[in-house]
Amino acid sequence: MASDHSSVVVPPKRVASDYPLIDSDPHLRRVFGYARPNDYAVAGAAASVSPIAFWVMERVSPSHVGRGGFSPVMRLATAIGFLGGLHVLYQRSCNRFYGFTENSREVEMDMREMVDKVKKGEPLYGTSGMSSYLQGVAARNSRYSGLFLHVLPWFNIVNHDQHGVDTAKYYQQAERELEAERLGRA
């Protein structure tokens, strides 16, 4: 007896949080797109710690490797700092998607983005060339992956419709807005 994998949907577990869940598996573009300016400032500060610390250590206790030895290590320290800054930025933005930190701005942005897509007749979370089964596999593998990012960098880069939220709210809001537009024109 062959099984039909296309109908397998594993609902995401709801995690208790103080703020509303926006998306349990946000796409990489949305995570960076919804990041706040202060996230970029904190990420920049975090990224600068590694090269500044290395420079200070070199000044306090010189390694005496000469000009050719300091530069490659300083470039490495800068690269490590840059990756650390990206990690901080991604984590702060993901925490808002998961509802772990205050996210009223992101809730409004999400509602506006999704309602606009409904009005245009576009799929909410984009289109994908993958089968629905593989989209489900991708969703299950990357759901809440931002919580384990410090151990295994894993991002959602797949468009799928399994995000742990009831999408009916977007359609209801779009209907209300379209009705208000019709009444306003009449």
UniProtKB/TrEMBL annotation:
Provide an example Pfam family for this protein.
Answer: NADH_u_ox_C
Q: Indicate the segments forming the NADH-ubiquinone oxidoreductase 21kDa subunit C-terminal fungi domain, all copies.
A: 111-182
Q: Enumerate the spans annotated as NADH-ubiquinone oxidoreductase 21kDa subunit N-terminal domain.
A: 17-102
This protein's source sits in the domain of life called Eukaryota
Task: Supply the alphabetized keyword list.
Answer: Membrane, Transmembrane, Transmembrane helix
Membrane spanning residue stretches: 40-57, 69-90
**What is the designated name of this protein?**
NADH-ubiquinone oxidoreductase 21kDa subunit N-terminal domain-containing protein
Q: Top-down, what is the taxonomic lineage of the species of origin?
A: Eukaryota, Fungi, Dikarya, Ascomycota, Pezizomycotina
